[in-house]
Amino acid sequence: MHIPCPLCGERDIREFTYKGHETYLARPAAGSAQPLWDDYLHNRENPAGRTRDLWFHGQGCGAWLLVTRDTVTHQVLGAHLSREADDAG
Amino acid sequence: MRYSGWQVLAQGLTGNRGWHPAWRSPDPRPDYDIVLIGGGGHGLATAFYLAKEHGLTNVAVLEKGYLGGGNVGRNTTIVRANYMLPGNSEFYSHSLKLWEKLSGELNYNVMHSQRGIINLFHSDGQRDAYARRGNAMINQGDDAILLDREGVRQILPYLNFDQTRFPIYGGLWHKRGGTARHDAVAWGYARGADRRGVDLIQNCEVTGIDIEAGRVRGVQTTRGAIRVKKVGIVVAGRSSQVAAMAGLRLPIESHILQAFVTEGLKPAIDHVVTYGMGHFYISQSDKGGLVFGGDLDFYASYAARGNLPMAEHVMEAGMTLMPMIGKAKLLRSWGGIMDMSPDGSPIIDKTGIEGLYLNCGWCYGGFKAVPGSGYSFAHLIAQDRPHAPAARFRLDRFATGHGLMDEEGTGSQHNLH
């Protein structure tokens, strides 16, 4: 797998560390009820097919990326900076 | 037919015309007391123990492909009980005891081979950790021997003891650990369940779970609707999708675990050897192939194949530990889909829906658990209360924080397992 880093270009997967589903971006507000935190930390949609997840480009620019890819084919469909997540919808 | 040496002789003398298929292939009936979704090792074992231990035979196992075509047919076949944390230790201890009588109980040779497992260690801290683990294993009634470097050298003289980065300090020897023939386990349980009246239905995919007023009423399948009182979901690798049919969102993320087999060689490796620092483990199959693997690929995947970086990593670790295997030709590699739980431990529990039971989250270690998992899941479904050795495999432990079993001490977080 190659991931197209918006800052560095297309790079080998070995440069990246996987964090997990984009659920991690929807952090509950401090003081939220416990079920929200459980859902955020543990429960997952876990799709077989198209998904969006967070990768850290540790051996490149150090950016956090939101990568769109297919979990069945390993096809990577795109990547953008996670801080632009809201812009990208 | 009961298999025996006498049958082999008798059939051999009469042209082998008396052998019959090991299980029936019935059409699904319109209703059952219990339906198990998933005809893998755990599902078939559950069906067998439902019939044998609880006398429940109005049971169907629904398998979307063929029996034993999932993870039980693609793994590295290791059987062990070298766990430490309460919850895991008594469960795997129980499972190993079931393994030890399994061939006799099933009248089917599952080729359970207690060739011994040696976990190598490479630092003083790791030695202490393994000493502690060994003590825990002895306390749970199992066996463990702590070997020093020379002790390991006597048993495994072919290892490279002169590695500069991770020199071998010793190993923890679990003599009752070993391997079993993975397909035979599935086939033996299938035959045993079928002989007791359980319907094993292949090519039958569940497409919906009918729930009314918080209670299971039936399942929709590609071979028609089935009314049913109790449903057990035991579909490692697809747990999230099947549970979603019942509106459940699980603490599961699916990852790929690769394994590799070489061409058949003369007997060379007599044990299961693990090399934790390099993430590598190896044994030799009864056919002669070296069977080995390493870590997960570490990202969500259903591809049933991995990517090359992990393959390269595993080969490097193997060559570091035992340079002698470098000339063996690799025949094939494969990837299994692991349903990973946040703490790396399994879930056998009721769901919030009455009559719906869940068995999932076996991570990278489901094979050795097959007998224990089936036994405990059958107990839960039949008696509506957990079986003692599996009583801590709770679905709500992540929500409550109570009873997490983080065996590797890495934390209860998805990307760490």
TrEMBL record, chain A:
GO molecular function: sarcosine oxidase activity
Domain of life from the UniProt record: Bacteria
Pfam families according to UniProt: SoxD (PF04267)
Entry keyword annotation includes Oxidoreductase: yes
Gene3D superfamilies xref list: Folate-binding superfamily
EC category name: oxidoreductase
Enzyme nomenclature, EC number: 1.5.3.1
InterPro entries with a match to the protein in the record: SoxD, SoxD_sf
Keywords: Oxidoreductase
Any GO BP annotation: tetrahydrofolate metabolic process
Name the UniProt record assigns to this protein: Sarcosine oxidase delta subunit
UniProtKB/TrEMBL annotation, chain B:
Keyword Transport appears in the UniProt entry: no
Any Gene Ontology CC annotation: cytoplasm
Keywords attached to this entry: Cytoplasm, FAD, Flavoprotein, FMN, Nucleotide-binding, Oxidoreductase
Top EC category: oxidoreductase
Main location: cytoplasm
Catalysed reactions, semicolon-separated: sarcosine + O2 + H2O = formaldehyde + glycine + H2O2; sarcosine + (6S)-5,6,7,8-tetrahydrofolate + O2 = (6R)-5,10-methylene-5,6,7,8-tetrahydrofolate + glycine + H2O2
One MF term in the entry's GO annotations: sarcosine oxidase activity
Gene3D superfamilies associated with the record: D-Amino Acid Oxidase, subunit A, domain 2, FAD/NAD(P)-binding domain
Annotated ranges, domain Rhodanese: 34-78
EC annotation from Swiss-Prot or TrEMBL: 1.5.3.24
Pfam families: DAO (PF01266)
Localization, UniProt: Cytoplasm
Membership in a protein family: Belongs to the SoxB family.
Protein name from the UniProt record: Sarcosine oxidase subunit beta
Gene source species: Roseicyclus elongatus DSM 19469
